[in-house]
Specification:
about 120 residues, Phage tail protein beta-alpha-beta fold, two-stranded antiparallel ribbon, Tail spike domain-containing protein, Tail_dom
Length: about 120
């Protein structure tokens, strides 16, 4: 069992309704449900949210609900899941076809490409 979808959320950790819950509380519940296999690192500060019907089925669905509620982005690193508000930077550049682009195709010549080498004696 190495996927979040394989771990069922325990009924004792189910939250029917709660007000002003921090993201750490919910990720700690998922960590406990997986037996400490998956750990969460939260890199930004998130606002408190009201939680309703959390932890009904699998840990993956619980994580998807956290992502939806707190509008965070996930950066997985093996069994460590990093949660951030935004991954990367917005440089304002856009890639559009037939606009400000010289060509969207590349031309490489493969005549001198060697895929196999033979030894001579």
């Amino acid at each position: 069992m190495f996927k979040l979808n394989d771990y069922k959320f325990p009924y004792a950790s189910y939250i029917a309704e709660a007000y002003g819950i921090h993201i750490n509380q919910l990720t700690d519940l998922i960590t406990a449900a997986t037996g400490g296999r998956f750990k969460f690192v939260i890199h930004d500060t998130f606002d408190l949210h009201d939680v309703k019907d959390f932890g009904r089925s699998t840990c993956l669905e619980a994580l998807n609900k956290i992502i939806q509620m707190y509008e965070c982005e996930v950066e997985p690193d093996n069994f460590t899941i990093n949660l951030r508000k935004k991954i990367g930077t917005d440089s304002g550049l856009q890639y559009r076809l037939k606009k400000n682009i010289v060509s969207s195709s590349s031309k490489d010549k493969g005549e001198s490409l060697v895929t196999r080498m033979f030894a001579q004696m």
